[in-house]
Design goal:
mainly alpha, 97 residues
């Protein structure tokens, strides 16, 4: 994935909820991130997961010790992988900074 620059939109809480992984701590998001794979954090369907992006970030912080630099990189990754025109990407990147 890293070599081919494949981006993953990951929904850790939903993955645990639907039994893809036993616990949040077993989710590979931290290993993927540390291996340099392009990941973005998402919540999946809030009507299914009942979790906000803030909740997801708090869980990542609590379980894996993620901080602002992790979330900024994930948002940059997601923006780079988006289908937005270049001009809109540049505008949003300035807001992220």
């Amino acid at each position: 994935m890293k070599r081919k620059n494949i981006h993953l939109e990951v929904c850790p809480s939903c993955n645990v909820q639907i039994d893809v992984f036993d616990t949040y701590a077993h989710h590979p998001i931290d290993r993927l991130y540390n291996a340099g794979v392009s990941v973005g954090i998402n919540t999946d369907g809030r009507t299914i997961s009942n979790i906000s992006l803030t909740d997801e970030y708090e869980r990542l912080q609590q379980v894996f010790g993620w901080g602002a630099e992790h979330f900024l990189k994930c948002n940059r990754n997601a923006l780079a992988a988006s289908f937005l025109p270049k001009e809109k990407k540049q505008k949003l990147e300035k807001k992220l900074e």
